[in-house]
What does this fold into?
Amino acid sequence: MPSAATRVTPEEYLERERQAETRSEYRHGEIVAMAGSSPAHARIVMNLVIKIGSKLGDGPCEVFSTDLRLGVRGANLYTYPDVMVTCGELELADDRQDIVLNPVVLIEVLSKSTQDYDRGEKFTSYRNIPTLIEYLTVAQDKVHIERHTRQPDRHWSLSEFTDPDAVITLSSIHVELRVAEVYKKVDFAPD
It folds into this structure.
């Protein structure tokens, strides 16, 4: 936990972040620099944005990639999900129109340095978003996708996909993805 001297308010973070050349997350009073991306990470994000975007067409939902900030009310978190899908009108935090509050689907591509955070504390924070229905984590070093789905009783169920021929149904946005589509042109580095 950061000391009181290093903590900043959300307002201080946003003022700095809106002027910064590099992106950072805001976690409970601490500014955390975002790590760089690998070719596999970038390919997976692009594959997801292209496939989801093409399947959403001109409907009420739209897909965004890593450049749009997400604010999580009640969790003291501002972050940049790898992929975010919203439906209907965007709910924005303020008149700057650079913080989304109402995603339906969030997707994070895992790396060795972020996988524990993305599956743990970040997912715990994401569960505070009332509109969120599905959360996916995508491994970049092997074929492995986890889909968490909010149930009507507000609990979350987990489905895992390791078969490239499997189909992931994102029921909240009426999109089906073949696992192989997610990993198109991704070369897995040997262990």
In short: The mean pLDDT is 91.
